[in-house]
Amino acid sequence: MRQIVLDTETTGLDWRNGDRVIEIGCVELLNRSLTGRHYHAYINPGRGIDAEAVAVHGITEEFLADKPRFRDIVDEFEAFVLGAELVIHNASFDVGFLNHELSLVGRSPLDTLCSGVIDTLRMAKEQNPGKKASLDALCERHEIDNGHRTLHGALLDAEILAEVYLAMTRGQESLIMTLDESPGGAERRVKRARDRAPLAVLRASAEECAAHDQVLADIVKASKGHCIWHSTGEATG
User: Fold this and answer.
1) Which helix or strand (DSSP H or E) is residue 96 part of?
2) pLDDT score recorded for residue 161
3) Relative to the CA of 143, which of 93, 190, 203, 236 has its CA 20 to 30 Å away?
4) Is 152 in the active site?
5) Sign of the torsion formed by the C-alpha atoms of 123, 118, 158 and 1
6) Which long-range contacts (CB under 8 A, 24 or more apart) does 134-142 make?
7) Domain count of the chain?
8) Three-point CA angle 72, 75, 81, nearest 5°
9) Spatial contact of 71 and 101, defined as CB atoms under 8 Å apart
10) Containing H/E element for 3?
């Protein structure tokens, strides 16, 4: 299983307003292990960079003046991500920007290049509803050191996100039965289940049954006869 953990930096927040990609960072996972292979590029956007964006990533127009345009690096980028599953934090942002860049040079969108996209922001919100789901918050939750992250950078953030993603999904591989399981493994699991002590069955006492009936009667009375739990459909009190 080949996955590419990806991050971008941009001139602003919305490609629909003319904002462009100025940095791409990718690291490769193969069967959930970092391979050491990565892709990184700074890109001259051919336009200005919002001051708010510079405050986040520190990349200036002067720094990008001699960097290649997206059309000059698109072949290398496509070759690196081709066929892989992408892992992105807030995927709609990066995918939207990259698809826009690809369209400007007449290339197909990411969903035709890659096998799928995992959004770790959505995953984090599903795993811990109501809790912060920023990359910094996830690093703290999963005890991943990001002290060297003073500014956002696409390659640095991709490397950190790879560690976060592996921590978030740790244990999932144990849910899959390996093909090299020793013969008789299934039979041994069945035998262990049979050897367990039988579960004790605790039946309600007469007093508990009476109390239960009284609760149902109160519900029937309060709901004017609408009580789906009552066995007879009639009030008992």
Assistant:
1) helix 91-104
2) 95
3) 93
4) yes
5) positive
6) 135/89, 135/160, 135/161, 135/164, 138/164, 138/168, 139/164, 142/167, 142/168
7) 2
8) 130
9) no
10) strand 2-10
What is the number of other CB atoms lying within 10 angstroms of the CB of residue 178? Answer: 8
Do 162 and 214 share a structural domain?
Answer: no
Domain of residue 219, residue span: 203-237
The reported pLDDT for the residue numbered 224 is 63
Task: For residue 206, give the 3-state DSSP assignment.
Answer: helix
* Residues 12 and 116 occupy one common structural domain: yes
Residue type, 177: M
- What's the pTM value of the predicted model, to 2 decimals? 0.71
d(CA 146, CA 119): 20
Q: What are phi and psi of 52, to 5 degrees?
A: -65, -35
Q: What is the mean pLDDT of each run of 10 residues along the chain (237 residues)?
A: 97 97 98 96 97 94 98 98 97 98 97 96 94 90 74 87 94 43 45 51 69 71 59 45
Shared domain for 219 and 161, answered yes or no, is no
Q: Which of 152, 212, 226, 230 is catalytic?
A: 152
Check whether residue 209 and residue 165 sit in a common domain: no
Instruction: Clarify whether residues 211 and 165 are in a common domain.
Output: no
CB 59 within 8 A of CB 40: no
What pLDDT does 198 receive? 55
- The mean predicted confidence, pLDDT, of the chain is 83
- Tokens for 48? 């200005």
Let me know if residue 184 belongs to a domain.
no
Does residue 187 lie in a domain region? no
Tell whether 159 and 219 lie within a shared domain: no
- Residue 228, pLDDT score: 54
Q: Using CA atoms, how far apart are residues 225 and 223, in angstroms rounded to an integer?
A: 6
